[in-house]
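User: Predict AraC-type DNA-binding protein's structure from this.
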Amino acid sequence: MNILGGDTSTNILREQFIPDNLFIYLVKGSIRVFDGNKSYTFQAGDACIARKNNLAKYEVLDSKTGFEPILFCFDEPFLKHFQEKYASRQTSFTSTDAFINVRESALITSFIESIKPYYKGVMQLEEAFEDLKYEELLIILLKNQPELAGVFFEFRKPGKIDLEEFMNRNYKFNVKVDQFAYLTGRSISAFKRDFKETFNDTPSHWLIKKRLEEAYFLINQQNKKSSEIYLDLGFEDLSHFSYAFKKQFGLTSTALAGLQAKVIHKHR
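Assistant:
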């Protein structure tokens, strides 16, 4: 368990796999998130639950007030202990959304104010108060929205799903192969075997090729710049993207953009 406060945009943007249920409250600023299917926008004063075992990309929107989220990460051992301690029942939760709006509540607002004296830096609460505050928050959330028990107390692992559909929808997410395997309900060995049968390629090679093909399209057809797209396509840095692009297509992304610019100019 840990709590994050202050300007943590760098930490948030780096991680695209959500391993544990995450409570997010925005003190300042606004953020847009995308889960591969749907986009969500949250502003100051909003709260939500980011559901575990999902992928997400985060974009901090321009804000003159700065960006300050508070996050509580609920891991499985804590949730199991809480469920046993309070004899909480798991209810059904029908929505499949990766992000769930938390309804506005005076209790949540008061809770956010109550934790401020216990900040220990910006990454955690004072140890003596941590478990108490986690329990308090979860009690408030379940009182405010009892149906959230179906989210917090769901401990099953992801089931086996259609590999081709999932990968074609989520190839832009920058996560490890073992996380893709887990999310599709497979062991690493089964994932690699099924991947070979489906795509006739290895996961790593296919991911790079698929991302670069999309990059070529965006640069050649939509006049995008490498600096605008490399992060969105799952590359960690621009130099790696540029090297891989030239290796794949025999010319740099800058050269491709130049050729496209000449074509546009010629037809004017």
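The domain at 3-152 is CATH 2.60.120.810 (Jelly Rolls).
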